[in-house]
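Re: that chain you flagged

S.,

Sorry for the slow reply, it's been a week of failed gels. I finally had a moment to sit down with the sequence you sent. For the record, here it is as I used it:
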Amino acid sequence: MESSLSAERKSTKYRIGDVLLNYYAINEDQLREALKLQAVEHKKLGQILVELGYCSAEQVQRAASLLLGIVYYDVRSMTFSEEQFDLLPPDVIREYKVIPLDTQGDRIYAIMEDPLDTATILEIERLAGLTLYPCIGVGEEIEKKIAEFYDATDTASSRH
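Prediction finished late last night. Pasting the structure tokens below so you have them in one place:
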């Protein structure tokens, strides 16, 4: 027998809640509660699910990666070079919370929390003079890596 939630959602496109359900990150009751809250709070569903403690930000971002066909990076386990951080100005990296990975021709690949944030993508492209190909990561972890990099860089340059 099909659940009422499945029947309600059958006519709609595949969404983040569906991916999280399919990977057993959340259950139908949790999704239903989060959807009700979303109607009132006007936040992203993933954010609500994380705030409620039903799943982690990493689970949401991995689900978004699958849904969007965009590469997910776990930045906690990565080391970034000065050359990578030099691909964009420090104020752009800090303001837009983006970690540059590489350039190829007129393209720049970078990790960001919301690869659907068109305004941010267009602004980065304008400032960099390159076409941005976004990858996805957990926002809080991206911010930590940026802070760690610039803290280490500032400390190293103050020693000289």
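What I noticed first: Strands lie at 99-104, 107-112, 131-136.

Talk soon,
D.
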